[in-house]
């Protein structure tokens, strides 16, 4: 029999991050003492006032469809949060609430990209960007950044890759997987390029609150002239430890795009879960002190992880200024030939030491693996001790 799969489905690669997270949980379920550096999710419980809000919503009987693009209460909460944090004003019709920031991004790509259109993606990139762009039959144009320059993009290189088919540029600062927080002058240069070539900027700001060393996060839409060409994408997953609730949002003055993305959602998933929306209202409008507490803990863990990695012969790492990932250069370990790429190394680590990490390949760099520090200090020390043994074996 012939295959019934579309060429799109045949091209698609499954999410490597979610695959590792699932494997980690499955191994733990089998009683294996696995060190989980894979998961890109906070290990903290969702703050109790947020969980209580979800329960109260259920008790009020809010178990029906809501407006497709989110309840008025949640759109207001998003608008208020973005205004309070960044002084950016958005009206309800300029906001769309989806099932996670991932869903917002997928909706936007479908809304703006035609077959053959190009979108610029800076590498290393989050695993889902190129795949989502290809699902829209468009072309991800990968522009590398380098460890030697702290994974900060070179605006000249970006500009050199622009063609008449370029429609959008994707910005993700702080970045997954490198943790780099783009300096203000680089953001300004990217803004200049967007203006000059009339590009849409899709700014994935999911790690905006997870910034260390007193670093300053600037939302792209707040840069001069950028509000009307930026799609701000964010969500509650990382900031409020709410990954399972699946609530993300986008905001843009381009109401044609917001409306198109909402229409796409209306024909695919409909509204995000009503209970999750109620919880997100509380997250965005309730007390914010737990966020600061979590960030403090993440920063301590980051310091510990980077300090320990720097002691291990064979590894190098750029200290991440945000998010909760260390993107570790493991290329020296491939020289002996016992492992020859990031997937081999990740498999070796998992099989011989029960340490789960995400290989760099799906992020666009075979020279690296990604270790998440969204896990306790003891686990970090235990996992890095096992990694040190592996480095000794492989060097
Ligand atoms: N963007 C980046 C860079 C991420 O790391 C994630 C994590 N899953 C997301 C978007 C999507 O997050 P969510 O769908 O949970 O809101
Ligand atoms: N973004 C997180 C990660 O990179 C969660 C998994 C996913 O959606 O990719 O691990």
Task: Report on this structure.
The chain is α/β, with parallel strands linked by helices. It folds into two domains: 7-46 and 289-394, Aspartate Aminotransferase, domain 1, CATH 3.90.1150; 63-285, Aspartate Aminotransferase, domain 2. It has 13 helices and 13 strands. It has helices spanning 7-11, 16-29, 48-59, 72-86, 101-112, 128-135, 155-160, 184-196, 255-266, 274-285, 289-310, 342-353, 377-394; strands spanning 35-36, 95-98, 118-123, 139-144, 166-171, 200-204, 230-235, 248-251, 316-317, 325-329, 355-356, 358-359, 368-372. The mean pLDDT is 97. The site of glutamic acid has 10 residues, from helix 2.
What Rg is obtained from the alpha carbons, in whole angstroms?
A: 21 Å
Shape: globular
Give the helix proportion (percent range).
40-55%
Widest sheet, order of strands: 2-8-7-6-5-3-4
Mean pLDDT: 97
What compounds are bound to the protein?
4'-deoxy-4'-aminopyridoxal-5'-phosphate, glutamic acid
Descriptive tags:
single chain, 395 residues, alpha/beta, Aspartate Aminotransferase, domain 1, Aspartate Aminotransferase, domain 2, 2 domains, seven-stranded mixed beta sheet, four-stranded antiparallel beta sheet, 41% helix, 14% strand, globular, binds 4'-deoxy-4'-aminopyridoxal-5'-phosphate, binds glutamic acid
Helix/strand layout:
Layout: H1 7-11, H2 16-29, E1 35-36, H3 48-59, H4 72-86, E2 95-98, H5 101-112, E3 118-123, H6 128-135, E4 139-144, H7 155-160, E5 166-171, H8 184-196, E6 200-204, E7 230-235, E8 248-251, H9 255-266, H10 274-285, H11 289-310, E9 316-317, E10 325-329, H12 342-353, E11 355-356, E12 358-359, E13 368-372, H13 377-394
Parallel strand pairs: 1-11, 3-4, 3-5, 5-6, 6-7
Antiparallel strand pairs: 2-8, 7-8, 9-10, 10-13, 12-13
Helix pairs in contact: 3-10, 4-10, 5-6, 5-9, 11-13
4'-deoxy-4'-aminopyridoxal-5'-phosphate (PMP) binds at residues 40, 100-102, 126, 172, 176, 204, 206, 235, 237, 243, 248.
